[in-house]
Design brief:
about 325 residues, globular, mainly alpha, binds tryptophan, 13 helices, two-stranded parallel sheet, 5 strands, binds adenosine monophosphate, three-stranded parallel beta sheet, Tyrosyl-Transfer RNA Synthetase
Length: about 325
């Protein structure tokens, strides 16, 4: 059976971008493949985190996975740091990765730009991600477009290891939503930037934002000149982004949306957009609340780690053996 792996960092409040670009697809995959979804806390630690916030957010991401439709009886949900093989394999892979490869990573360049104290782990972060994926003999990795380069590096490392040591790893493929279907949801305040967890609050919709906050953020979202609602990434990047969000939340096509709102102005479009986003998030928020009873998520995560651990350990041992570790 095909294997699927993906991870989300507990580094901030999950956004509509995380949902539409990645998590929504996790739920689809669980019925077609054996799935592993991980809260990648070790990745979050590559930049400073408040320990209390990290602890709370780690559970929050796991709860939101389930609230977004992942069934813990079907897919395996676990915390990255609970399976020691992730950190161990990372070391072995670091010994097989070149500095030049990591220096080319655009996400590292963006995240380190202008910062004084950048951790060594931020630089080696893509190798930890490769370890996550390769440990589970993963065939497919659902991610947003921003992770494409990291997936290419993962494939390069897997192919290199296989060439040097014989068949050790499955070479994974990314699954990135096709254009206009969520792979890159943009900021509400600047349509040239992606919607991100860590950015200022008005630029992104958090999955747990209450309805009035969602409505307010959408109302104040930037728009383009003119008043026509039509899909045009070059002339109307802001409206096009809002149309993609509308389309993904409602199931209506971009053409239908343009036909409905084309000439009625931005105000009516934004009001209805707020309604469809609220309708999408309300059931997710209700399920999230149900999971907040003490002990519930902890036991799901313990069971997930117990399932992931032996699979990861087997892959790690395979490479240790080939590399000559006694
Ligand atoms: P992160 O927030 O970096 O942990 O990302 C978790 C997942 O959400 C990854 O697969 C990202 O590619 C995806 N993602 C994050 N932001 C966006 C966005 N604005 N649009 C689409 N996908 C996104
Ligand atoms: N680097 C990814 C991000 O920031 C998160 C991640 C870590 C991941 N390990 C992974 C995604 C493995 C897919 C597979 O979004």
């Amino acid at each position: 059976m095909k294997r699927v792996f993906s991870g989300v960092q507990p580094s901030g409040e999950l956004t509509l971008g995380n949902y539409l670009g990645a998590i929504r697809n996790f739920a689809t995959f669980q019925h077609q493949a054996e799935c592993f979804f991980s809260v990648v806390d070790l990745h979050a630690l590559t930049v400073p985190q408040d320990p209390g916030n990290l602890r709370r957010r780690t559970h929050d991401v796991a709860k939101l996975f389930i609230a977004c439709g992942i069934d813990p009886d079907v897919a395996t949900i676990f915390i990255q740091s609970h399976v020691g093989a992730h950190a161990e394999l990372t070391w072995l892979l670091l010994c097989l990765t070149y500095m030049g490869e990591l220096q080319r990573m655009t996400q590292f360049k963006e995240k380190s730009q202008g910062k004084e104290n950048v951790s060594a782990a931020l630089f080696t972060y893509p190798v930890l991600m490769a370890a996550d994926i390769l440990l589970y003999d993963t065939h497919e990795v659902p991610v947003g477009e921003d992770q494409k380069q990291h997936l290419e590096l993962t494939r390069d490392i897997a192919i290199r290891v296989n060439n040097r040591f014989g068949e050790v790893f499955v070479v994974p493929e990314p699954y990135i939503p096709p254009k206009n279907t969520g792979g890159r949801i943009m900021s509400l305040t600047d349509p040239t930037k992606k919607m991100a967890k860590s950015a200022d609050a008005n630029s992104s919709i958090a999955l747990l934002d209450p309805p009035d906050v969602i409505a307010k953020k959408i109302k104040s979202a930037v728009t383009d000149s003119g008043r026509e609602v039509r899909y045009d990434e070059v002339e109307k990047p802001a409206i096009s982004n809002l149309m993609v969000i509308y389309s993904l939340c409602s199931g209506d096509s971009l053409d239908d949306i343009a036909a409905r709102y084309g000439t009625s102005g931005y105000g009516k479009f934004k009001k209805d957009l707020a309604d469809v986003v609220i309708q999408t998030l309300t059931p997710i928020q209700a399920r999230y609340e149900e999971l907040s009873e003490p002990g519930v998520i902890e036991s799901i995560l313990a069971a997930g780690a117990a399932k992931a651990e032996p699979i990861a350990q087997r892959t790690l041992s395979r490479l240790q053996d080939k590399m000559g570790i006694v």
